[in-house]
Amino acid sequence: MNETGALAAFASISSATRLRILKRLVEAGSDGLTAGEIAETVGATPSRTSFHLSNMSDAGLVTSTRHARQITYRIDFATVGALMRYLLEDCCKNNATVRACCLPGSGC
Question: What does DSSP say about strands 62-67 and 70-75: parallel, antiparallel, or unpaired?
Answer without folding.
Answer: antiparallel
